[in-house]
Amino acid sequence: MSSDGRAKQLNNIYPGDQFKISLDDNHNLKKIIYKPVSANPMIITYSKKRFRFLTINVQPTAGITHSTIVITKSLNYDAKEFGIEAEIIKLMVDNFSWELDFRRDLSKGDKFILAWNGSDKPLAMIYVGNRRTISLFSYKDAKGKTNYYQVNGKTLNDSFFFAPLKYDRISSGFQKRRFHPIKKTWKSHRGTDFAAPQGRPIYAAAKGIIRHVAVLSGYGNVVYIDHGTHLTTVYAHMARFEKGLRSGHRVSKGQVIGYVGSTGMSTGPHLHYEIRVDGVHKDPEKYSPPKQLNVPQGSMAEFVRVAKEVLAKLNI
Ligand SMILES: [Zn+2]
Fold first, then answer.
1. 265 CA distance to ligand 1 centroid (A)?
2. 96 is in which domain, residue-wise?
3. What is the chain's percent helix, strand, coil content, to nearest 5?
4. Same-domain check for residues 40 and 137
């Protein structure tokens, strides 16, 4: 081991330093991940009776370290190549997907910067793209839960309207089985029907990215909006779409996306509204999506101070 200069680092192991040891299928040593408290992590691999040392590229910046992932293919691919753990990649995707369409918005050369201060989760996650920068900072709330907040103290997700229009009444609720008035068969009704006059505006229930603008036989004129990676809302039977609405567009909460109608399989003007979580239909009358969170007023000054310090240290 002494043949590699980096191995000398192992002569000085301190309390708190972490080792993760992985074995192959034959229980032979495959890899050791060494995470010292005060230096860059190191991956030690063993094959063909040789140890190899790879220091993970994190650059120390006065008290914090940071890793810069440069996009060549996709966040998932490049972060994995860089050695970022799956759990952290998921954290990045869950947060940034509220503002970024990973299929369309990322370009080669865009960067994700993770700033670390010794804990398991990054202190900050920053996207630096051609056109915009999105900076998120960790904050642990009174319940001990860490979330990521913008410098304005708000999480990147959005709170939802209960109903995405001014409706007269709920004409049909979410039901596992109901007798379909047109098909004359028992069928589940996996959304809420809001009765409203023809032509009344329909709003995006929360900010998101338009996934589909489509004309389908059952749903008629229908819009699908993705809100982050887990939530999708569906708006069916529209008379017409708002002009210029295209898939891939970002919409804000309350933005008009179309107008009440009775297109597709429908008996009268209403909005058929669905909420899906990871593809599973939820009852919009009962299910409340997670709300946008705020850093408490009393903690804002300190939160902003740390956020600005991180940005300054990273030259952002
Ligand atoms: Zn319906």
1. 9
2. 60-157+295-313
3. 15, 40, 45
4. no
Instruction: State whether ipTM is beyond 0.90.
Output: yes
11 alpha carbon – ligand 1 mean position (Å): 68
57 Cα to the center of ligand 1, angstroms: 53
Same domain, 90 and 106: yes
Expressed in angstroms and rounded, the spacing between residue 95 Cα and the centre of ligand 1 is: 31
Tell me, in angstroms, the distance from the centre of ligand 1 to residue 241's CA. Answer: 18
Tokens of 25: 């299928």
Report the separation in Å between the CA atom of 246 and the middle of ligand 1, taken as the mean of its atom positions. Answer: 23
- Say which DSSP state 289 is in: P
103-125 burial string, b = 16+ CB within 10 Å, else e? eebbeeebebbbbbeeeeebbbb
Residues near 287 by beta carbon (within 8 Å), at least 6 away in sequence:
275, 277
User: Residue 256's Cα: distance from chain center in Å?
Assistant: 24
Is 260 found in the same domain as 210? Answer: yes
Ligand 1 center to 272 CA (angstroms): 4
Q: 3-class SS at 258?
A: strand
pLDDT tens string 255-309: 999 999 999 999 999 999 999 999 999 999 999 999 999 999 999 999 999 999 9
Residue 59 has pLDDT above 60, yes or no: no
Compute the distance from residue 195 Cα to the ligand 1 centre, in Å.
10
